[in-house]
Amino acid sequence: MSRRSSRLESAGYYDNNRRPLIVYRETPHRTRKGNFRAKTQITVTDSNDNGNNSSDHTMFSWKIFGFLFLLLPLCFGCGYLVSSWSSNDSKHLRELQDQLLKLKTNNLPNLALETKGARIVHDRTSEPYQTPEPVMGFIGIPIYRRPVSPTVVIQGHSSYSRTVLGLGYLVISLPHPFTISHVTLSHISKDVSPTGSISSAPKEFSVYGLHDVDKETGVYLGSFLYDQDGDSVQTFKVPDYGVFKFVKLIVKSNWGNRDYTCLYDFRIHGHLADCGH
């Protein structure tokens, strides 16, 4: 008779017939399937997580690339706008500076006014241009238009013109010895020209200061360019080369007219020699 343990009996080791529920040949060891499933599930989950992370990383990279692709033209656009604004600001600044300079030069006193005592030295001035065609005839006698006197350029208005043939020049006697600071040359603008052109306007010209009117040459004060596309009244700064009683203007070229050059107004600016300011 096999031995029975009261402890085993109380633990339900035997059945109702008092026979063991298991035999000793069986291995009382159970495989922990739950742990295997957990490990397998963890491994599979980790693998899936790695795949998801890789996919998320790729998607993030594409998003960054797309953002940069959209940002690039925006940067170029902003750069263009900034450049345009800077260009416009510079243009407006130049216009304001030109307007201020124009206002300043318009307030400069004109020393070469006939009403203030200035005179044209006629024997040192080129002859006025005579039109070759008569303006009308009377009983077969041609009548020519009288040349305009060069005095009009020192009368302070531009309603008349003094025309000179080829390379024209004139000498102005100032009422007093002056230190020359600026000169101003005037001509009608293209906007008011009947032909829309001002080919007879001076282009390159030079200015000389003279102490003695009988001398052919004087002190060179500078050469300047009258801009046919600029303002009708243009002022040019002259270096301080001393005190002069006479000023000579030489027109070296015009804007295309082969016959003559027109002078409307010539102004001289500066201050008295004995004023010291």
UniProtKB/TrEMBL annotation:
<dbReference type="Pfam" id="PF07738">
    <property type="entry name" value="Sad1_UNC"/>
</dbReference>
<dbReference type="GO" id="GO:0043495">
    <property type="term" value="F:protein-membrane adaptor activity"/>
</dbReference>
<keyword id="KW-0812">Transmembrane</keyword>
<dbReference type="InterPro" id="IPR045119">
    <property type="entry name" value="SUN1-5"/>
</dbReference>
<feature type="transmembrane region" description="Helical">
    <location>
        <begin position="64"/>
        <end position="82"/>
    </location>
</feature>
<dbReference type="InterPro" id="IPR008979">
    <property type="entry name" value="Galactose-bd-like_sf"/>
</dbReference>
<keyword id="KW-1133">Transmembrane helix</keyword>
<keyword id="KW-0472">Membrane</keyword>
<feature type="domain" description="SUN">
    <location>
        <begin position="117"/>
        <end position="273"/>
    </location>
</feature>
<dbReference type="InterPro" id="IPR012919">
    <property type="entry name" value="SUN_dom"/>
</dbReference>
<dbReference type="GO" id="GO:0005637">
    <property type="term" value="C:nuclear inner membrane"/>
</dbReference>
<dbReference type="GO" id="GO:0034993">
    <property type="term" value="C:meiotic nuclear membrane microtubule tethering complex"/>
</dbReference>
<protein>
    <submittedName>
        <fullName>SUN domain-containing protein 1 Protein unc-84-like protein A Sad1/unc-84 protein-like 1</fullName>
    </submittedName>
</protein>
